[in-house]
Input
Amino acid sequence: MKKPPQGRLVWANGKRLKLRVADLDVPVESLSNPASRISKIIDLAAASPLPHVYSVWRDVFNIPEEFGKNEAYVEVSQRLIWLNTELDEFVAYFDGLPNFPKPYFHEAAGQVRTAISPRLLSSASTHIGQQLTDGTRVTFRLLSQQMPSDGAPVDADELEELLNLIAQLRAALEHSSLSLRLRLLIERQLRLLMRAVDAYPIRGSRAFQDSFSDMSGELMAFLIEAKEDSTGEASAALQTKEVSILFNAASKLRTIAAKIGNLRPYVQLAADTVKLIHELKHGGGDTPNSP
Output
């Protein structure tokens, strides 16, 4: 298995299911709080030679060339929204510190807020570097050293292994005997997970925590609905091996969500799911009737 360059932040793209590495020459461990992530991202943006705001952010966020203009615009906008959320966390933390000099960071935060506004994406004349002074960038670098970590970094090898398993899951689903309803559920789970992968360089390990919590909730909602449905496909699904993996998955996801940054249990869960789908595909157990 090919490993990404060590000491660099891992970026990924949900469509291609391949690891993409941004030009961030900094250990992942040093990007463990909102201030440090914002600091590195705005440093990259300010140093970009590209001519206008949209092209700068598309380059910084490493949006693949094969994305169409509209799709890429949506992806860039989403990442700026995540970055604004991180800025909110940054401001809330330092506002809550007693006797901390508020003007010290409020001016810098306001400047960054303006620079990362999605509304600027349509500007063809303003370079992002003009929105950020050297003093602002230095302020964020200094404050990143005072802000506590919001979770252990995700292991790059585990992330790569997980992405490979997701690709296997999608391939297995295309030819499985799982019901359409369950296939759609699992595909939705994979989309939630890939969104966390995309958000990780901006939001940190909390992106995975939120994703795992949402995934667990969706699984439990499906199982409750299936139990109450006495006829049709959902009820049939409860008569098969599928239900055991779903209950098991929901329980494990809740546990994983409580341990931010720990992907190993989910990697194992994904591997078990691939194995189960192959067992069902080859007649290893009862399967529901496909619609």
About this structure: The chain has two domains: 33-144, 156-281. The longest strand covers residues 10-13.
